[in-house]
Write a structure and sequence with these properties.
The chain is of the alpha/beta class. The chain is built from nine helices and eleven strands. It has one domain: Rossmann fold. The strands form two sheets. The protein has a seven-stranded mixed β-sheet with strand order 3-2-1-4-5-11-10, sandwiched between helices. Helix 4 packs across helix 5.
Length: 263
């Protein structure tokens, strides 16, 4: 069969266009470097947070829980160890591949875009933890996520969103820093343009220069309240840290929202 160079060029161009069309989290979250940079996240802190949520919200072993944007599944695994039926979903196939090693009869993982509801799925609780919201360019996508969640929750079901406290993040933001992990020097710069927080990560690895930019919407308490009203949710409680102390916009590390689907 004769090699068709023109068809080959068309194929290459199509692949390049597809790569350019990927949203930032689709490309960055699927690299090994993402997992290297964030490998030392505080597991004890995550376990404490999940245990506090389960106790405070009285989540029962009979409840079905969805961990939305679960990453490698660290919160899902903790929830499952507490005896819960847990489904973890994430858009990153690499993250899900790592999470699947921990599957059992009451813990399942699969690839899913958080903007799309899982067909015929119903959950008592849906958790979206560790700033896994606001990845998109437009607020309309946030609303799409919340409407998908609304569809998947049983009547009276509960959603928990854990996000950074925008006011404190802006106040304490470091413009530049460097982290050396596994022989890689990650040069990190951050900025806020009034709409998004940008975190650019540049480094050299395997003889190549790499650059990725994380982009998360700067969502305030008022922004969340407005979105939740539009998606027909009722705000129940707000916490400001993993110990579930009350939220204070000046000093809290996090904004943790507990909301309910109206019956």
């Amino acid at each position: 069969m004769q090699f068709n160079f023109n068809k080959f060029l068309i194929f290459v161009e199509a692949m390049e266009n597809q790569k350019q069309d990927l949203e930032w989290f689709e490309s960055w979250f699927n690299t090994i470097y993402y997992h290297i940079l964030y490998q030392n996240r505080n597991e004890k802190e995550a376990e404490l947070f999940v245990q506090n949520l389960v106790s405070k919200l009285k989540i029962q072993a009979s409840n079905n829980v969805l961990d939305l944007a679960c990453g490698k599944g660290r919160h899902s695994i903790i929830l499952n160890k507490l005896g819960l039926n847990v489904t973890g979903v994430d858009l990153s196939s690499n993250s899900i591949a790592k999470a699947k090693k921990y599957e059992n009869e009451k813990l399942k993982f699969f690839v899913q875009d958080m903007r799309d509801p899982i067909p015929d799925a119903q959950f008592d609780f849906i958790v979206n933890l560790f700033t896994s919201f606001g990845y998109f360019d437009h607020h309309q996508d946030n609303l799409k996520v919340l409407k998908a969640i609304h569809q998947m929750l049983v009547p009276g079901g509960t959603l928990i969103i854990d996000f950074f406290n925008l006011h404190r993040v802006i106040k304490e933001m470091k413009a530049q820093e460097m982290k050396s992990i596994e022989g890689i020097d990650f040069h990190i710069s951050k900025r806020f343009d009034g709409h998004h927080i940008y975190k650019t990560i540049e480094f050299e690895a395997e003889g190549k220069q790499h650059s990725y930019t994380e982009k998360v919407q700067g969502l305030s308490e008022a922004d969340f309240k407005n979105l939740l009203i539009q998606a027909d949710f009722e705000l129940i409680e707000m916490f400001g840290d993993f110990y579930l102390n009350p939220f204070d916009s000046e000093i809290s590390d996090r904004i943790i929202l507990v909301v309910r689907k109206k019956i």
